[in-house]
Amino acid sequence: MIKLTKAPKSGLHGEITVPGDKSISHRALMFGAIATGDTIVDNFLMSDDVMRTMTLFRELGVNISQVGPQIKVIGKGLAGFTKPKHALNMGNSGTSTRLLMGLLSKQPFDMPFFGDESLSNRPLGRVAKPLSLMNAKFDLTADEFLPGTIKENNRLQGMTYEMPVASAQVKSAILLAGIQAEGETVVIEKMPSRDHTERMLRQFGGTIVTDNGVITVQQQRQLHGQHVLVPSDISSAAFFMVAGLITPNSEITLKKVGVNPTRVGVIKLLERMGANIMQEPIPSDGEALADIIVKSQSLHGINITADDIPSAVDELPILALAATQAQGDTVISGAAELRVKETDRIATVISELTKIGADIEEKQDGMIIHGGTPLHVPQGSILLDSHGDHRIGMMNAVAALITEGDVILTGEDAMGVSYPGFLADLVLLMREKI
Ligand code: S3P
Description:
Elements: E1 2-4, E2 13-16, H1 22-34, E3 38-42, H2 48-59, E4 63-67, E5 70-74, E6 88-89, H3 94-103, E7 111-114, H4 117-120, H5 125-133, E8 138-141, E9 145-150, E10 160-162, H6 168-178, E11 185-188, H7 196-203, E12 208-211, E13 214-217, E14 227-229, H8 234-246, E15 251-258, H9 265-272, E16 278-282, E17 289-295, E18 303-304, H10 316-324, E19 329-332, H11 345-355, E20 359-363, E21 366-370, E22 375-385, H12 390-401, E23 403-410, H13 422-430
Parallel strand pairs: 2-15, 3-14, 6-7, 10-11, 18-19, 22-23
Antiparallel strand pairs: 1-23, 3-5, 4-5, 7-9, 8-9, 11-13, 12-13, 15-17, 16-17, 19-21, 20-21
The structure holds shikimate-3-phosphate.
Family: Belongs to the EPSP synthase family.
Binding site for phosphoenolpyruvate: 22, 94, 122, 169, 345, 391
Pathway: Metabolic intermediate biosynthesis; chorismate biosynthesis; chorismate from D-erythrose 4-phosphate and phosphoenolpyruvate: step 6/7
């Protein structure tokens, strides 16, 4: 529990380097583990979710160590894992669970696995069904949920699969099985989802062809350890972008943010809302990087539709907060995926922001945010709860910056899933203690 005050009248100022990208950190461990030779990872994200993946690989016999600011993974090759002594604990991490269901779908032993309460309610059929078509075998609770078992299996068969939902986790699970399968595996995406798996497979020496939404992989003989530089996570930076835009008199610089084209939806949507967001590109051999500079400015409501969702899926809670401060209505549609994130994010965004005066209507696949509502605590103080969801916790903290009255954050520990130092960085920008 932590009490937050409003931002000072002088606004938020300063330079922040948000931690490494969560999606890329998970994948660096995964590719490092199945490669031969050493992988060195710079700017690795030390957060609860990614540490979960690290622990899982250690239980599978992979040597992973911290060398100064870097992580070193000594690869085991595609067939070098040892049977874990315990059931695999996936914690809160959907990315660990879904990607590892693909990666570990051809092992000579059963692996029971389980997760926390939130993860145990998230659908895994979207991964288990396509992987089963490749001959992977799972026992899941009600065919769909944790706890379950990734079953022993010695043969995977390639397939062609048209994605029913835009999901990088589903796509990645299939590709990670595909590189171990006989024949060709083809994934067809109607809307592009984040492509870090494809890029990293290529970086580790794998062969993959991507052509207009059609992604093709073959069985890979060997991948080779690499040096991976993890960019700062745009999904974490998004909280400060919005904080800078909606807190009067602010100017914030976010350093070395990953601006992979499949991830920059939040910038594009804020620009459509009238924001001027400066990007100063930084030369990079890997994923695209830029410094991002935001200043407070007025915004207007927009229509956010299904095509906009995949590249901004994790940023919709903080975009909803921005929309409460925009002039006019913002309509979010085609975003039913929000209902199966760490929480039902349509419900939790509305539950928390309406406590402080936001005017939001719920839709089955999104929300209608009537903008221009000053945020305030009706009387006394108010508790804004994360519901155990890191991105809801951070949205609440940013909302507190512009809320009149005493806001108390609860469940703030959840922020550690992707951004353990979030509140400390916020304090730096406020230049006063909270
Ligand atoms: C992720 C993909 C997205 C995203 C999640 C990370 C990944 O999930 O929401 O935070 O690293 O592949 P979906 O695949 O369910 O859209």
